[in-house]
Each structure stands twice: as structure tokens, then as C-alpha cells.
Amino acid sequence: MGSDAPRGLSIELKLPLLIASLLVLAIGGFSAAAYTEVRHSTLVAAGERLERVTRELADILRAGAPQRAAEVRQAAADPALRAYLRHPTAPARPAGLDALRQLTARDTLNAAVELWNAAGARVLNVGRPAPALDAAAARTLRESASGPAGTAIGPLRTADDSLFFPVIGAIADGGRTAGYIVNWRRVLSSPQTTAQLTGLIGPDVAFFIGNVAGDIWTDLSARAEGPPVDVTKREGVIEYERRGGARYLARRVVFAGAPWMLVTELSRDRVLAPARGFLQRIVATALVLTAVGAVGAWTVSRQITTPLRGLSEAAQVIAAGRPAHVDSARHDELGLLASSFNMMAERVQQSRQWLESEVAERTRELEDAQRRLERTAEERYRLLFERNPLPMWVYDRDTLAFLDVNEAAVHHYGHTRAEFLRMNAEDIEEGPARHEGAGRHHKKDGTVIDVEVVLYALQFEGKRAGLVVAQDVTERNRAAEQLRRTEEQLFRAQKMEAIGRLAGGIAHDFNNLLTAITGHTELLLEALQPGDPLREDAEETRKAADRAAALTRQLLAFSRQQRLAPRVLDPNELVANMDKMLRRLIGEDVELRTLLAPQLGAVKADPGQLEQVIMNLAVNARDAMPGGGKLTIETANAELDASYARAHESVRPGPYIMLALTDTGSGMTEEVKARMFEPFFTTKEAGKGTGLGLATVYGIVKQSSGYIWVYSEVGKGTTFKVYLPRVAEPAETLAAAPRAPKPRGGTETVLLVEDEELVRALARRTLARAGYQVLEASNGGEALLALERHQGPVHLMVTDVVMPGLNGRELAARLKPLRPEMKVLYVSGYTDRAIAHQGVLEPGVAFLEKPFAPDGLARKVREVLDGE
Question: How far apart are CA 119 and CA 598, in angstroms?
């Protein structure tokens, strides 16, 4: 029964403790309130005492100030001092010193007397050396003595472990201040004075006199440590703590007419000592009352708790399954409770016997049902385990040995069931053991597969086991990786397309400006005679415009919006024709090798643009080999099949010509490869590259329906492979372009439509000089209006392709029914889709590319009019 004893305190103890606690709270609350009131009254009385003592002590100390001032004022009236100040000569010096000595002779505390001139310089002194004063302190002292009183008392100063204070008096001579007499008086209290002050303020009160600035303090016997806090601006009772932890109450007062301050302090512990004694007496009384109340409460609780304890013990006996009976002879409430308890005990005993028989019967039934459930669960487990389509096995979590495997695992991994049971889980795992989550397994034939494993902990045949379900996710992972590569290639293609559109728009606007610059420069050169000093400036302007036009063509090449003149050509012939130029371009320290495939097919491309591709890639290779190296140019027939196209999403399967340039340079990192075709991206130093070389290559290849791929390793080199569609047509022979003839003029009527004013003005001037009659319009609407107003024939319309509102092709279509005989010449900075497909002009379309020179415009107009 000991284990069934109630936890915590019994009622026999709780009742006395409750009463004692209430007594403690009541008496304690009263004691605390009484102590608080006594403490407060004591502190108030101490503050009043400090105020009175401080006031009386200040009055006593202040009483000596007039006497000190009178002594100095009397000495300042001595004629000998005025005489010396008028004529500080040797004959007047003895009389002046005697006057000063009279002041020191009056009182032994007058330690030193000085005579200052009006500027504050010391001219005479007697007695011991006076404390040092800086210029600011001396000036303040002189200004204090210049008042109506004629005297002033200065702050405390130290010298040789002694304290002094100056009393200064002004020496008047004829209505002006001729100088000052300074009496340095020692701060020292006699034993009799100290005893009188102690008797006045009491032995428990200490006082300190110090400067208002708080830097020097004294108790009139020696230098002392002042208050530990700044008291200059504090009123009333001040409380602070000194070193050692002792706390003090203090009052302060400032002396009128002197830069001093008096502080009196009283130990807080001594003030509160009576209050603490009162508190101790109250606490002792409370303890006595509490003890008496607790004893009385314990006596009462014993009379109540003894019968209750008997009931509790009887209840524990009944709970243990045995009958019990308690004494019910008392004639009070506790006796009635005991009789009721005995009746309840008899009924509980009868109910217990009936419940025991019922529990035994139900237990037998539950045991039979449990055995049937276990047989059913085993059959269901076997059915689910063996017929699950996913590989499953059970293994020992301590030894990792296989305990059971299903048929799916036998079929998928290739091991027989007997082989599995001789193996452990690590025998099929690839790499570090992972019994849960993503991992890799290998089959009996050595094939490595990706798996996702789910583990369930269980007990199997009395062992700590794990049930594993393994899913082969090899194909899913391959598909996910392929999707990732496809998305990455698509993102890069979209980014390059967006950058290309931006570059094309910039090139279009820039070409308009270059057309005006180039045209007017050509006209200026025609007007200037050879030897004219302005001709050299014009030549430089034309060269700069040509360089800008080259940059613009590179931007158009990248954006795939330049005009192409494709021809069927042999890449081997093109590379061979460029051999000498390439060797000069890459320098002597780079070895050039060509591996040209025999029986190489032909491609249809612009030969000039393809030369630009080879040249830009060669320059890029040269810059990657600053210390020299090897550049290999290779050609070959290539068949890009469906598998290659799946790995390179933008490629269409078919026959191609492969043009490869391989260098042994520094190679590129993955970060550089990801951005190498972006315009203006370069890894070269500032001023050593435009960042348009590879961007131009990319644009030309894409506009030629080709593909370019790069393979690079840092420190080993780079290979660029360009794939262009192979054609079955025979290759044309590459020949140099003939020299353009001098343009001829004419008298035909030309409609000029151009939205850019600078370009329109240049074209109008050029055509007018060539003899043509020019109708001018800035947009499609003005062009329609100009034709309606013109009664004669219009032989040719020169129109910009890209214009607000109607573009050039739309305008030509609108005018065709009105002027069927009118020919059309399109002018643009790039080939718009309205007149070209992938940079190749539609048949019968006349086109002039911006920027153009005046001769170029005149020549092209004549060609179109003549039907050439």
C-alpha cells in the first residue's frame, strides 16, 4: 500500500500550513507597511537635518569673507603700491615690498602676497611661491575684482600638497585701475575650529568645500575626495554611492560672492539603522504569532484527518481486491460517512466478482479472434508482396542481409531468389550505400540503373528489418535531362534573337546618319581642289564614316538583316584564295594548317560574308594564342542525322559541309561560352576589341541557314564548327568584281520617298545634280499626294523600306495601279521581310543598301531606269 500513498502533503499538514501562511501574509503586510512608513519618515528627517546643517555651516564659513576682503582693500589703498605701479624702479621697490609684508604679518594663513600690474603681470611678491594661474584664470580673477566692491575671492588652488585661495583687490589710481594686489590664503582649520564645527553639525555629518567646477575639494584640514557624482546642478537631497559600496545622503549650497560650493553628507546606513531595528522587532513578533497559530491549527486538523485516514486505508484495501470495514461508532458527520462507506464496500465486492467472470469469458473470445486475424494478415501480406509490380525486398537492418524478395525484384535485377538470399543490400548498390531516397543500383548483367527507394521499418521473424520498394527511374531521369538541355538551348536562342532585333534597329537608325555623313563628305571632296588644307579633314571624316559603316554591317550580320548575294561556291576554293591574307592576318608566330577534304560538296552562300566568317574566327584564334601556336582550318562533308538533331534542338537532319577552325590557345570557360555570341561582349582589354567579331559570325551563319557549335577547354584550345547546307548544283568560279563605271545622269522624273530628312536632302541634291526632276515626300501619304498633283510621267520611285505608316513595299503596291510604268528602287539600312527572305532579295526587286555615296545612288538609279 505504500506505493498507493497520496502524493503531496496531507490535509493534516495543509491546514496548519494554510493558517500559518495567512498569518504570515497578514502580519508581513502590516510589518512591511509600518517599516516603509518609518523608513520614509527617517529619510525625510535626515534630509531636513542636512538642509539645516548645510545652511548654518554655510553662514559660518561665509562670515569670514568680508574680513578677508577688507584686509585686501586696506592693503590696496597703500600709496607705496600705487607709486611703484606708476614707476616700477629699484628705489620704489623696498617700500612696495614692505606694504606687501604688512599683509602677510597680520595672519599666518596669508601665505603669499603678489602685486600685479593692470595687464595681470606679476611685478612684486612676498612669502612662499604662489600657485600657478593660467592666462584665462588670471583674466577671470581680474574681471571679478573690477566690480563695485573692488575685491573678489578666487577658486581653490593646490601647491606642494597644500590648498590656497586668492583674495584679489583692485588698486585705483586717478579713476583707473593701475594694478591688483593678490593675497594667497592657506586653507587650514585649527583644532578648536574643527571641534566647534563638529559640535555644530554632529560627528556623523561630513562636509566638503570645493570649487564650483568640482575639480578641488577640502574638509578644511587637507585635500579631500569630493562627491562621486556631479552635484553642481542638483537640488534637494542628493543620494550617491562611494567606493566600497557605501551610500550617502547629501545637500549642497553655493557661496555667494565666491566660486565655492559646500556639500554636507550623511551615511544612509546610519540614518536607516533605527528603522532596521524596528523591522527586526516586528519580524520577531510575527514569527511568534505564526508559530502559535500553526500549533492550534495542527491540533484541529488531527481531529478531522484521523478518521479520514482510516477511510483512505480501507479504500486502498478494496482497490487491491480484498474486503474492508471501518469504525462507524462516531455520532457526527464523519460517523455517517463511515456507515455509507461500509455499504458501498459491500456492493463493490459483489460487482467485482461478477466483472471477473465476464472478463475471463471475453478474453477467451478475443484470443480466438486475434489468431484468426494474424492468419488473414499473413495471407494478405504474401499476396501484396508477391504480386506487386515494383521490386520489393525485406532485409536485416543490422547485417543488411536479404531476408525475402518478391518476383518483380527477381525479374528486374536478374538474380534468382536463392542468389538474393545469399547477398546483402550493399551488393546491388552503386557507390555509397543509400538504403532510402534516390540512388543507383546495378543488375546482374552489370547495367547501372537510377532508382528511388522507399523504406518501411518493421519486425520480420523476430529481427529488426526494413521493407524496401524500389522504382527504376532511369528513363525518367534521361528524359528530364534532355528536357533541361532543350530548355537551355531554347532560352539561348530566344536571347540571341532579342539581342539581334535590338542590334538591327540600332543599325537601321545609324545607317541613316551614316548615309548623310558619307554623302555630304563625298560632295565636299568633289568641291575641294587637290592640296586644299580642308581636303585632309574631309578624307579623315570619310574614313571614320567607313569604319562606322563596317561596324553597322557587323550589327546587321548578327541580326540577320543584311542583304546577301548568295552564289553556289566551293568552300575549298574560298579557303585557298584566302591563304595569303590569313597568314598575314595571324602573324608569323602562328602556324596555319589547312586540311581540305577532296570531293567536297558545294554550298550556296554569299562569298564575301563567308570570307568574313573565316577571317573573324581566325582573328579570334590569333588573339587566344598571344605566345604563338597552331591554327588548323578543316573542311569535310557531313551528314547530320536524327540523333544529332535531337541533341542539338535547332538542327535539321540532312547533308552539310563542315568548316572547322581549331586553335591551341587558352580556351574558354563555361561562363564565356554562354555569352560569346552576344554583341559587344569581349574578354579583351578596353580598346582592343569591339565585341562584334563572333556576333557577326553567328548572324552570317544563321542567315545562311547554317549552324555553328563550339568545343573548348581551358588551357587546351578551341574548335569552331560551322555547318552549311550542301547543295547539288555545280560551284561557280570566284572572280574579282569589275571596277564601277562613272555614273551617268538623266532627265527623267524621280519620286523620292524618305522619312529621314538628312538622307532625303542628300538624295534630292544628288539626283538634281545628275539632271533628274525630283518629286519629294517624307512618307506614303505625301507620296500619294505628290503623284496626284504631278501631271507628267514619273519614271522611277526611290523609297525607303521602313517608314511610319505605309512601308516602301506597301506604298509601291498602292501606286502600281496609278502609275504602272513607274519603276521602284528600294533603299534601306537592312533587308526587311517585305522585300527579302533571309536576306535574299525577291526576284525583280531593285535594292540599294545604306549607307550609300552620291555616286552609288546615281549609278543605281541609272541602272534601274535602263533596266540593267
Answer: 115
Phi, psi at residue 542, to the nearest 5°?
Answer: -65, -40
Sign, CA torsion 351/354/357/359: negative
Q: How far apart are CA 822 and CA 864, in angstroms?
A: 11
Give residue-wise pLDDT tens across range 254-304.
Answer: 887 788 888 888 888 888 788 777 777 888 887 887 788 777 777 777 767
- DSSP letter string, 246-296: -EEEEEEEEPTTSSEEEEEEEEHHHHHHHHHHHHHHHHHHHHHHHHHHHHH
pLDDT digits (tens, 9 = 90+) for 562-607: 555 678 889 988 898 888 888 888 888 889 999 998 989 899 888 8
Q: In angstroms, what CA-CA distances link 319 with 308, 334, 378?
A: 17, 21, 41
Buried b (16+ CB within 10 A) or exposed e, 240-258: beeeeeeebbbbbbebeeb
pTM tops 0.85: no
Residues facing residue 723 across a β-bridge: 658, 707
Do 208 and 215 touch, CB atoms closer than 8 A? no
Cell triple for residue 31?
Answer: 510589518
Q: What is the pLDDT of residues 748-780, one digit of tens each?
A: 999 999 988 888 888 888 899 889 999 999 998
Q: What one-letter code names the amino acid at 119?
A: A
> In this structure, are residues 850 and 828 in contact, taking their beta carbons and an 8 Å threshold?
yes
**Chain length of the chain:** 868
Residue 705: closest CA among 544, 608, 564: 564
Nearest to 129 by CA among 157, 91, 98, 89: 157
d(CA 637, CA 592): 21
Contact predicate 297/15, CB 8 Å = yes
Beta strand pairing call for 796-800 and 247-254: unpaired
CB half-sphere exposure, 531, CA atoms < 13 A: 0
Q: Report the chain's terminal Cα–Cα distance, integer Å.
A: 127
Helices 533-559 and 474-527 meet at what angle, rounded to 10? Answer: 160
> In this structure, what DSSP letter does residue 2 have?
G
Average pLDDT over residues 131-157: 82
- Identify any residues that bridge with 429 across adjacent strands, giving them in sequence order: 441
Helix axes 693-703, 533-559, angle to 10 degrees: 50
The burial class, CB within 10 Å (0-12 / 13-18 / 19+), for 353 is: exposed
pLDDT-based confidence at 119, cuts 50/70/90? confident
Contact 501, 560 (CB under 8 A): no
Nearest to 627 by CA among 591, 578, 661: 591
Cα dihedral 263, 264, 268, 270 in deg (nearest 10): 160
700: helix, coil or strand? helix
- Rounded to whole angstroms, what are the CA distances from 385 to 404, 405, 408, 409, 454? 10, 8, 9, 11, 14
Task: Tell how many helices (H) and how many strands (E) occur in the chain.
Answer: 22, 30
Q: How far apart are CA 490 and CA 499, in angstroms?
A: 14
Amino acid at 309: R
What does the alpha-carbon distance between residue 125 and residue 101 come to, in Å, rounded to a whole number?
9
Q: Give the integer Cα–Cα distance in Å for 89 and 14.
A: 103
- CB under 8 Å, gap of 24 or more: what pairs does 338-342 form? 338/307, 338/310, 338/311, 341/311, 341/314, 341/315
Maximum Cα–Cα distance for the chain, whole Å?
151
